[in-house]
Amino acid sequence: MKNILETLKKKILSLVLALMMTLGSYAPAKIEIASAPEKSERSVRILSQNLRCNNDLYGFVKNRALFVSEMLKNYEPDSFGVQEATETWLSLLDESLGEKYARVGEPRDNAKNTEYSAVYYRTDKFELLDEGTIWLSKTPEKFGSKSFLASMPRICTWATLKNKETGFVYTHVNTHLDFLVEYTRSKQSEVLLSKIGELQKVGPLVCTGDFNADERDETYEKMTAALDDSRLLAKETESGKTFHNYGRGDLFHKTAIDFIFVSKGTEVERYKIIKDTVDGMYLSDHYGIMADIIF
User: Fold this and answer.
1) CA 246 to CA 282: how far, in whole Å?
2) Where are the beta strands (DSSP E) in the chain?
3) What is the pTM of this model?
């Protein structure tokens, strides 16, 4: 009985804090994010985070942007991809991260509160060689296009980066597949993989994103036929769901739906699910994921 009461107390407190945040009447005195694991000099740190585009009962964007920014500063990825990134989100992240990071990417359409699947990279370490965005449709070059029964236009964005000291080049691709039906995601993954095939001619590649599919789905099978799942390669790794719906759980997926895929033959030192909270509040309705990669 005591455990049940403690659990209920925590849930009530979390809801009260969430409501205060949404109304703008609460801000943490100090934002504390768990320490990030150390990164070896040989590895490239890649991160992916679905931001949850909207303000809602479980988190006001302006506050959560502070949390996410502190997490990013702590983990200090070489490049990272974000999903559900509205212009409000991007402006807040740009302001917080400053000149250390630059980003590439186009909006998926001209709708109000449209979303980006932007890629950010460290400007102190990397030179941008190439970047672009395509639509995961029958007409990938057509702005705002959608196909395959998609609920909305879906995109992938990439940045090809050159290490300023070593000259090493890799490409970071970032995407967000549709949520409605597996047929749509499977067809979108084919368009995505076609572009990835072109980009891998330049050098090794990572592909981050919210795939809205777990390891049982055809989308995952197609992705892992062409690329490797960093979680399965990592010497130090962990398993678990990545969509948690602000701690309320995921009834539709058995495993993670956010992935960091890497070119075949890539070595992965570490894979981590980032479960940081601030005063019990989540950064998003998805956990972030991180991989330390040696190409």
Assistant:
1) 6
2) 44-50, 79-83, 101-104, 119-122, 126-135, 155-163, 169-176, 205-210, 228-229, 258-262, 267-274, 277-278, 281-282, 288-294
3) 0.91
